[in-house]
Design brief:
- The chain has 13 helices and eleven strands.
- The protein is α/β, with parallel strands linked by helices.
- The strands form two sheets. The protein has a seven-stranded mixed beta sheet. A four-stranded antiparallel beta sheet has the order 9-8-10-11, covered by helices on one side.
- It is globular.
- The protein folds into two domains: 223 residues, 3-Layer(aba) Sandwich (Rossmann fold); 93 residues, no CATH class.
- The structure holds S-adenosylmethionine.
- The site of S-adenosylmethionine has 21 residues, from α1 and β2.
Amino acid sequence: MSKFKVGELFAGVGGISQGFIRAGFDVGWANEIDKKACETYRANYNHRLIEADIHSINPKDLENIDVLSGGFPCQAFSVAGYRKGFDDARGNLFFEVMRLADHLQPKAIFLENVKNLESHDKGNTFKVIVKTLQDSGYYVKSAVLNTCKYSELPQNRERIYIVAFKNINSYYSFNFPGKTSKTINIEDILDVEVANKYYYNKSKYYDQLKSEINKEYTIYQWRRVYLRENKSGVCPTLTANMGTGGHNVPLVKDGKDIRKLTPRECFRLQGFPENYVLPEYVSDTALYKQAGNSVSVPVIEQIAQNIKSSLRINDELIGSYINKSSKEFTSEQIDRLVAV
Ligand SMILES: C[S@@+](CC[C@H](N)C(=O)[O-])C[C@H]1O[C@@H](n2cnc3c(N)ncnc32)[C@H](O)[C@@H]1O
């Protein structure tokens, strides 16, 4: 059975590629503008990476793919960002996805973004996105999933996932994954041997940290002038601004002392495997940003699995089940197909 192909826009360090590859897809190509993210990307993948501004891409130069994916930059929609939405150049990047989609005509489009994309500008931004996808001939489903409720990972990360299909039968058959319980604890993602540079014992804040951080293997975060303990046994959402200022990286007290999480631990909290290369020539600052910008791989993997099943309905099984007089399946037929 030939594999479906995905093209990854706004690829960052390839978290979406990771999830789709694990679900059995091939990656045709990827696009990313940031030089340092491209360095990490190249250390891990051999497929074509176009290091360029998406605006400069001519879709005629792209190999055809079955799924077009993109976690388009979320700063414009994020609560932590500027709340400008489509007025912000970064918000407009969604229309670049559609420019390429209109040419490539993928069977499915997969988008990931911050949760409040849905409520931004009283829901108007999201309406525009759905309407634009529909106008291009897609049927759209979306869901907000929290990583710690939809995967084994101990990270609180609510993200909106949008899945759009060209074919109505794929659309009907597609479901977002169900809830699962977190099985990995904070302690499990921590390294035993950690370089001294991550510890705070020489910091001018050490006394304050020591008086406020009293529980081991619990994540704490600076909130302006005080420290907030995460009482749910998970790590708060990793953010891109972890790479700036240093203060934003989550803190933990391990068996030795108080320290910040390492870049490797942050990538682990996103579900990247141990053999995912974090190149030595990419700085910690850049790696923190890349981890925060990326996605929770196991969540992507499960969605990609379900996308694959729904695409198969049309590509592989259609002949044996389709009612020749109708272009659409009945819901009973779809249930049978999904069960195959
Ligand atoms: C939210 S991150 C997506 C990260 C990705 N999903 C991952 O797993 O690492 C958005 C990415 O879009 C990239 N980007 C921003 N503007 C771009 C542009 N004009 N063209 C191409 N990529 C761009 C950023 O550098 C950033 O890596």
